[in-house]
């Protein structure tokens, strides 16, 4: 695999004089950029015009990752030409969150075949129910296939997001690229680093991603009791206090769920993923050192036995939650550095801050995660 990464800033232009001459039917172009490129896609068009035969995938962000640098208002790009692996890609439209399940199922149906090894996908970050999207994917994609990706971002504005479709940035799209053949190697890891506190409470009433009651009590009122003075800053302050979701006490599989909005009238809370009735929910809070340690652990999880042995070029795609960035502030680049430090020397990294991360929890089908650092490593042997 031949691999190059580079970036673009409106004030400086491209970080290299000429685009790498890697265009082919076996080339993947990955690009992450600010929401503003929907208004002026000139740089995107210039990039993709250099790769007319390649497969491209990309989306808007809440911050672009290039190496160990975090930027805004830029493009972060990776171009990888595979020698012995095949690629395919697909895009489906999604008008609203109610169509999320069907969008996931349709997207997977276009790409699944017997030699599929991995899917990397990006989705509109606002008009989607991420839990339903991955549920649709999981009905079609075999468990042995690694599925990773994320939901597009728009800084901390939550107004509009884009996904590439035939080289153009468009809202209301879900896109994926399939990696095929026995020579492609894909690793994955996803970790939070949050501390749980308070008792675990049973979800007694909920509808999809709207939580109404915990232990028979109005969810919002109970949540506010724990937040204390910070309750007056909801929903923004909720980024500091996500919920840990599990099926039973002691369950090793814990998904993190972030609050998107609150409804004072109904005393309900809307989350970035589904909140199934009967599940246990427990409050979490940020611990700076543990968040950074979580990024390091996620990277270690990508290094499954034999995945990266004997390889020279490794692409790491980092997808981290916008909530982590808001919490870490000026220390955000520390988690990017911590992740890259654990990967093989010479690994090239691109990525973005997202509205949701997609990855298996450990193995098997994919899940929607919030407030995690999720890494996908891609190489060829």
Molecular structure report:
There is one protein chain. By secondary structure, this protein is α+β, with helices and mostly antiparallel strands. It folds into 2 domains: 2-191 and 289-380, no CATH class; 195-285, no CATH class. Helices cover 18% and strands 39% of the residues. It contains 7 helices and 28 strands. It has helices at 42-49, 100-111, 130-138, 219-227, 288-301, 322-328, 332-341, and strands at 2-9, 13-14, 27-33, 55-60, 64-66, 69-71, 75-81, 86-93, 116-123, 146-151, 163-165, 168-170, 173-180, 184-191, 195-196, 201-207, 210-214, 217-218, 243-246, 255-257, 259-263, 268-271, 280-285, 315-321, 348-354, 357-360, 366-369, 373-380. Strands 15, 16, 17, 18, 19, 20, 21, 22 and 23 form a 9-stranded antiparallel sheet that branches. A hairpin with a 2-residue loop joins strand 11 and strand 12. The longest helix has 14 residues, at 288-301.
